[in-house]
Amino acid sequence: MGTKYFKIFFAVLILSVLQSCPNTGEEVCDGKEASANIPNLITITPLKQVYSQGEEITYQLIIPSENNYFGDPVNLYQKTGTTDGWYIASTTQLFDGNNVTYVKGSKRNGAENWHNVTYNSASGNYELEIKVKLNKTGNYSLFADDRVDF
Q1: By its UniProt entry, which PROSITE patterns does this protein fall under (predicted)?
Q2: Could you tell me which of 60, 47, 136, 45 has the C-alpha nearest to residue 96?
Q3: What is the pLDDT of residues 39-70, one digit of tens each?
Q4: How far is 39 from 125, CA to CA, in rounded Å?
Q5: Is 122 exposed, middle or buried (0-12, 13-18, 19+ CB in 10 A)?
Q6: Could you tell me the end-to-end alpha-carbon distance of the chain, in angstroms, rounded to an integer?
Q7: CA gap 93, 132 in Å, rounded
Q8: For the segment 67-87, what is each residue's pLDDT rounded down to a tens digit?
Q9: Residue 58, Cβ neighbours under 10 Å: how many?
Q10: Which residue, among 79, 86, 81, 82, has the nearest Cα to 33 in the 3D structure?
Q11: Is 33 left (phi over 0), alpha (psi -120 to 50) or beta?
């Protein structure tokens, strides 16, 4: 079988939405300042228009625990106390039919499109890193408005 090519469109435009209640102790999270659209949180390296079958890419999501995504500075780890955020991917197209290896973070049990974004105390970041060996040929179009819950 010959080597086929495929394209990854819009990978640079991937957006993620962070979800959490910004004020600790609130009984009800009204959504205000609890969501933030952050462009380019997800990276794919190497980023090319055309790949060959068998190539490996790295799919990575890094969220600094200390950030100002909600307007004011916040430390997500201190506010939530959680060591794993949940990344809910809007598509599984990149992972289905390809070899997937988790370097940082993990697959969330019981859900095809959920991944654990694990807190790294040494770096102060929540991290997900997935190596994907591209076995499946065809066109891939990735544009995401995904979210991460803490």
Answers
A1: PROKAR_LIPOPROTEIN
A2: 136
A3: 888 899 999 989 999 999 999 999 999 999 88
A4: 17
A5: exposed
A6: 45
A7: 12
A8: 998 888 999 999 999 999 988
A9: 13
A10: 79
A11: left
